[in-house]
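Table 4 source record.
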Amino acid sequence: MIFPFFLVRMVFLLTLFFGTAFAAERKVPVLCYHRFGVEVADSMMIKNSAFAEQMEWLKTHGYMVISLDTAMGYVNGKLKTIPAKSVVITVDDGHKSVYTDMAPIVKKYKIPVTLFIYPSAIANAKYAMNWEQLRELETTKLFHVESHTYWHPNFKKEKKKLSSVEYAKFVDKQLGGAKKKLEERMGHEIKYLAWVFGIYDDALLVDAKRSGYSAAFTIDRQHASSSDNTMALGRYMVISKHTIKDFERMVDGTEDRMLPAKKEVIGY
């Protein structure tokens, strides 16, 4: 009688081990936008009509736009399931066209959007929104503000020109300082960070976690995945040249499966 009990126990433990070891990878496509307008003024801008077409495509094809919080709950295993066809929408920088052009479309489709903001621009730069506009967007319960560093720096350039002590202070300002400023202005916790220009390294990933962020996002063109470092999760930058077919390849994972040599590379 001892042997069968031992055998059953071993089978149970092996099943538990391999079930955990080979658990399905949890993945969600996260899209990244910048500016919106009636016409395309630069490569980073997308036409209002094109954005509306993309949102209609998602609706027609059974996709559900979910909040970044919900997506991260799934990726980190705190949520067991999300809608089968889920997608996240984010916007970097805080350009005023988010308020004037994007917001009406977002309200029409009632979709959640995360805004990655660098506070130095807000109410200062001519192209940027002000704090009142950001707070107004958040009152709709559709928009939510997160961090994009303090003033949109190039970490590679700053690291070369600053001493190690100066650079450490600089990084603290850009990561911890931005988080603190946004929390003061928006009145809620800031949990997520978007890497400026998609620039990060191993040390910055550690710094971001130490600064209190629970996840950070790149512009590496791949789904945010449970198998990746939570401080370097993928996003797809969506710009003016992308067709609806390109858009489809981002959200359905086709682009992820392309050979590296054939994958699109987009920079600022």
